[in-house]
Amino acid sequence: MLEADGLRKRYGDTVALDGVSLKVGPGEMFGFVGANGAGKTTTMRIIMGVLSADGGEVRWNGKQAGHEIRRRFGYMPEERGLYAKMRVAEQIEYFGTLAGMSAQAAHRSSDALIERLGLTERRDDHVDTLSLGNQQRVQLAVALIHEPEVLVLDEPFSGLDPIAVDALAGVLAERVSAGVPVVFSSHQLDLVEQLCDSVGIIKGGRMIAGGTVAELRARESRKRLRMVVTGAAPGWIDRLPGEIIAKTDRPPQGDPAVEDHDSYDEVILAPSDDQEALRVAAQAGRVRHFAWQEPSLAEIFREVVA
């Protein structure tokens, strides 16, 4: 169990962290989300010992995390932490030896990671000649080289194409299945929702919401209806009871259920009366879809930080 308990950090008059706490169990992937400057990177740097906290502590399996414990952690910073003129394989092995591995063990582990991350054809290239995606793969290999007991990753998917995202996600899933706790921050909330067992939302240095995505959805204050109506006259949406969260008059491309001559209205509604909403929609036109909709993590995020 990785625990951060009541972390506090101040820079002059600026409060960067105000009592941030989180827990990540074995084999759990924790998504850390928040706006720029909310405190994600500061929290991760304190967990890794790169920064010292003004208050609170970091524990691993109940023991306060000192230097020797943190050597068993793997860290991927948002900024590149690589030597640009070193070759890929040489670089990964070098970081393995810094983590205390023998040269032979670092070589074996590096070879396995290079193959797993699709870097075989780039193993002898200098880092500064690689694409952003391949540099991210090297950075992840550096974090994984010593088989860490914890992974802390700051924006690991930033700027990656879908193939690179899948490769990194697959490697992280393997580590999670082996029981490694993983903490990663991301602005890509769809990825957080897809990959993570639990989520923490931070704002202004304070953790304002946390739990599984299902638990966060259960706290959402507004239930949402999604309805699709075709053939309705303009203005019918104004008669719906409740708050209009979103609406569009553009059908999905290639949707065979919507004829070209039909008007199309898609509405996301927080209804005050769902049965009245159905009655209004049915009187206005043909109801193609009418169902409760679970909010996405992005919608939950907007709700709780507002």
Keywords, separated by commas or semicolons:
six-stranded mixed beta sheet; 33% helix; Rossmann fold; AAA+_ATPase; 306 residues; 14 strands; 2 domains; alpha/beta; ATP-binding
Description of the structure:
It is a peripheral membrane protein. By secondary structure, the chain is α/β, with parallel strands linked by helices. The protein folds into two domains: 2-218, 3-Layer(aba) Sandwich (Rossmann fold), CATH 3.40.50; 220-305, Alpha-Beta Plaits (2-Layer Sandwich), CATH 3.30.70. The chain is built from ten helices and 14 strands. The protein has helices at residues 40-48, 67-70, 88-98, 103-116, 132-144, 162-177, 189-195, 213-219, 274-284, 297-305, and strands at 2-11, 14-24, 29-33, 55-60, 63-64, 73-76, 150-154, 182-185, 198-203, 206-211, 224-230, 242-248, 264-271, 286-293. The chain has a six-stranded mixed beta sheet, sandwiched between helices. A four-stranded antiparallel beta sheet has the order 2-1-4-5, covered by helices on one side. A hairpin with a 2-residue loop joins strand 9 and strand 10 (206-211). The longest helix is centred in the middle third of the chain and has 16 residues, at 162-177. The chain is elongated. The mean pLDDT is 90.
By CATH, the architecture of the largest domain is named: 3-Layer(aba) Sandwich
Instruction: Specify Rg, calculated over alpha carbons.
Output: 24 Å
Classify the helix fraction into a percent range. Answer: 25-40%
Query: What is the CATH topology of the largest domain?
Result: Rossmann fold
Terminal-residue CA separation: 31 Å
According to DSSP, the number of beta strands is 14
Q: Which spans of ≥5 residues are poorly predicted at pLDDT below 50? A: none
How many structural domains are formed by the residues?
2
The general outline is elongated
Strand content: 25-35%
**pLDDT average, as an integer?**
90
